[in-house]
Amino acid sequence: MPRPPAQYAGLVLFGLLASIGISGPADADTGATFEVSATIVAGCAVDGVGTSGDAGLIGTLDFGRDTTLSTATHNAALGANQTMILRCTPGVSLSLKLGGGQHASGGNRNMQRGSSSADRLQYRLYANAGMTDEVMIDQDRSILVTAANINDVQLPVYAQVSLPGGSAAGTYTDTVLVTLTW
Q1: What is the pLDDT of residues 75-102, one digit of tens each?
Q2: What is the signed CA dihedral for 82, 87, 91, 95, rounded to 10 degrees?
Q3: Cβ distance 131 to 160 under 8 Å?
Q4: In angstroms, what CA-CA distances link 46 with 1, 56, 139?
Q5: DSSP, residue by residue, 3-72
Q6: Which end of the chain is more exposed for a tag (fewer CB within 10 A), N or C?
Q7: How deeply is 57 buried, as exposed, middle or buried, from its count of CB atoms within 10 A (0-12, 13-18, 19+)?
Q8: 3-class DSSP state for residue 126?
Q9: What is the pLDDT along the chain (182 residues), one digit of tens a residue?
């Protein structure tokens, strides 16, 4: 049998290798995918919250000054004096709960003069300026969050005190715990 020219030797060798199942370098599949995702949930941010969740003093309900003999009724609102900034996403289910204060007694909130429990003035908290929607101790109240107030949600807290006349002179105070949940 005559010998093929050298230029055909490579083709013959390749044909032989291909016929017995040996081929050149194998192609490897090096493409792969992975997923990326994020879930955004409705919530709120309270400026000034420390690591314990305590936002500190968020405002003052100030009934002003009057004489010891007065029987006048005084109103106050937290919204105008609110010092914290509460930002929430629209549609979040925001709830407010107001505690009884440091001097609650018999289901009533009281301001007290100094350390004397005999020197107290009862006051009431409301959810509206008309003082018709009273907020009872530890009662959950919904706060509406809309696109118009998302960057400065005001807490709807209004207060009223009716002076009994004959109160001892001095400053009467109380501190109420505000709990916000969403």
Answers
A1: 999 876 677 788 998 888 999 999 999 9
A2: -50
A3: yes
A4: 95, 11, 21
A5: PPPGGGHHHHHHHHHHHTT--SSPP----------------EEETT--TTS--------------TT---
A6: N
A7: exposed
A8: strand
A9: 555 555 554 444 445 444 555 555 667 778 889 999 999 888 998 876 555 666 677 888 999 999 999 999 999 998 766 777 889 988 889 999 999 999 999 999 999 999 989 999 999 999 999 999 999 999 999 998 988 888 888 888 999 999 999 999 999 999 999 999 99
Q: For the segment 154-173, what is each residue's pLDDT rounded down to a tens digit?
A: 888 999 999 999 999 999 99
Q: Which residue has the tokens 């936002």?
A: 55
* Backbone dihedral angles phi then psi of residue 176, each to the nearest 5 degrees: -110, 130
Backbone angles phi, psi at 15, to 5 degrees: -60, -40
Q: Which of 93, 89, 102, 80 is nearest to 156 (CA)?
A: 80
> Do the Cβ atoms of 65 and 76 come closer than 8 Å?
no
Q: Which of 175, 98, 89 is nearest to 141 (CA)?
A: 98
Question: Bridge partners of 124?
Answer: 160
CA dihedral for 78, 82, 88, 90, sign (positive or negative) = positive
Q: Name the token pair of 100.
A: 């009884």
